């Protein structure tokens, strides 16, 4: 039996391989990553804790296509609506 107080249980976990988007919170949606931990002990109620964490997608900046400068512009002709009055 453990004594009362703060106890630290080190653990590690690995995020599965995949192309996951970075965490994001916006006005019209969000991408949230969270983890849930449950503590099961004999003769005790199960305790559950959940927390969110930030995840940043790895971007290899050594890829040549990321080094190319990019720009774009758009123009359109709008006729003079007051002409002829």
UniProtKB/TrEMBL annotation:
Coiled coil (residue ranges): none
GO cellular component: cytoplasm; plasma membrane
Domain Arrestin-like N-terminal intervals: 4-62
GO biological process, one term: protein transport
UniProt-listed SUPFAM superfamilies: E set domains
Family: Belongs to the arrestin family.
Entry protein name: Arrestin domain-containing protein 3-like isoform X1
């Amino acid at each position: 039996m453990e004594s009362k107080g703060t106890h630290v249980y080190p653990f590690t976990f690995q995020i599965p391989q995949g192309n996951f988007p970075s965490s994001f919170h916006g006005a019209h949606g969000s991408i949230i990553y969270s983890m849930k931990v449950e503590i099961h002990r004999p003769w005790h109620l199960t305790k559950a804790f959940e927390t969110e964490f930030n995840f940043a997608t790895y971007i290899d900046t050594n890829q040549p296509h990321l080094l190319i400068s990019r720009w774009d512009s758009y123009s359109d002709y709008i006729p003079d609506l007051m002409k002829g009055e």
